[in-house]
Amino acid sequence: MARTSTGIDVGASSAIALCGQYKGNTFHVTDFNARGNPSLGSSATEGDTSWLLSGWEELAQGFKPVAARVGLTGRDVNVRYTRVPRVPDWQLRNLMRFEVSEIGDQSGTEVASDFNLLPELPEVEGEDVVLLAMAREGLLDDHLEGLDLTGGNLDSFSPSAIALYNAWTHFGVVEDETVLLANIGHDNIDVVIARGPDLLFARNLSGGSRLFDQALAQRFNVGPAQAEKLKLKYASLRSGAAHPTPNHEKASRAIMGAAGQILSLLQSAILFCKSQVKISGLKVDRVMLCGGGAALDGLPQYISGGMGVTVELFDAFRMVETDKLDAASADLLEEFKLEAVVALGLATMGSDSGAYSLEILPASLAKKRAFWGETIWLIAAALLAVCYLGFKTVHLADELDRVNSENAGLQSRLSRETRIHREAEQLIEENESLRVLASQLQWVAGLGEQGARAMSQLDNSLPGDFWVSELTSEWTFDPELGVERNSERPMLMVRGMIRPGTDSPSRQFQEMTRALREALVGDGKSGGRMKESIDRDQFSLDLCLFGPPPPAADDGEGDAEGEEY
């Protein structure tokens, strides 16, 4: 049977709660509540969370959430990405625990966290990308205080951006394209970038529809609440639209700067995704908007003009069953359907066990659940083990005398073998020390001699229109140079540029590499090898003069290989 879950999204302008079950490939809404936040018209200082409690107080009127999954966003939520080797789960948990502890120590605040792996990316080989979400414990405490007002119970906290991603994958039209989803709230924007059904990036950004209200408040010299009304009544971002009254024109012009800031935030999210996930060729094909700020007239067209892609409003409730709602709740959901997308995603995460999820818990609650979910069973297992050991002790008492008699005979043999073993270990340690010393000497001598010889020969052979842009030395391996893994050798990597318009660069490059090969590598029998490449105005040389010598050829075999030095 599907699990009933409630998604709750409390923001500065509204508080949304949506309850239901995910079954039959859709979500069945059984209850819905949406309230405006009275704190919208008040000015709050930084760090003031009274608006949060105000939203919860409104939501508590006539609504008791079941298994509440509460959305998190804002400055107190940090979503970051870490590339790690593919390691066992227990080792990955230790790595993330260490990173969270380090971040908490640096910030001086207690943080709660959870992590999950991104789907495997073809651009990232041999590594996993971990999405790590952290939230300040104080923020969780504020939400728990508000949840207590409703009389509901907590399932967990989750970043609102992850809820937005689940709403898209469960109820959006997912195609083979890259889509940016943005939930534009009053103070924050939750951004998700998905390629097909796969999550690439999720983050919350500071900035939202408050930017429009502030611009209108300044232009009309009114308060925040009146500015919100002016925005809904007069403001529009439609290009070339006729303005019926001077107030329409005045309001529309006033919000242009704020709209540019929203556009810049979305564009910066794409750039940040490229740098965080290391996908330099990322290109967004479509943008989907939701949240209260997305309802501003002409905003999709404005963003489409700025980003050069199709921009639409995300109506997640076309795929949702609402038959169990009464008429008033159904009308309320229709009114708040843009604001309720995150709540829908949160409820889906709580109800669908297969959903991509992050579950952040306060430290006290996490310990309590760990005790009843794990520790209590360990205690029971320990008690059973004690009983078994008591029985086993009695059963094995007769064996003790026999073992003691055999032990005396083995002691002398053990002493002799121990002495031999100790001497062998000493020899092994001495051999290892000599091996390390020899390796260090080869590293120092190899890099120095190899670099000096190569630089000297490059000074003589490098054409006038060629120049070296990068030269690095590493102790590494390269099968193409005959150096296998675990048999590393000093290698020199030369990267260079060619002046555009150079006459016959390929011929000059071949002459240069021929001279270098003759001077440095020779016939390759001493272990020297070099590989080179040229691509338009760039060239590269990889050189190893201390590789293992090639195997001796039998009956003429290997002659062809001897030419590849």
In a few lines, what is going on in this structure?
With 565 residues, the chain is of the alpha+beta class. The chain folds into 3 domains: 1-169 and 315-361, Nucleotidyltransferase, domain 5, CATH 3.30.420.40; 173-313, Nucleotidyltransferase, domain 5; 450-562, Heat Shock Protein 90, CATH 3.30.565.
Query: Can you identify the CATH class of the largest domain?
Result: Alpha Beta
How much β-strand is present in the residues? 15-25%
Instruction: State the distance separating the first and last CA atoms.
Output: 68 Å
Mean pLDDT: 88
What is the tally of helical segments?
15
Q: How would you describe the shape?
A: flat
The major sheet is characterized as: 5 strands, mixed
CATH superfamily of the largest domain: ATPase, nucleotide binding domain
Which fold does the CATH topology of the largest domain refer to?
Nucleotidyltransferase, domain 5
- Number of discrete domains: 3
Number of strands: 17
Helix content: 40-55%
Sheet/helix structural class: alpha+beta
CATH architecture of the largest domain: 2-Layer Sandwich
Low-confidence stretches: 555-565
Q: How are the strands of the biggest sheet laid out side by side? A: 3-2-1-4-8
Radius of gyration: 33 Å
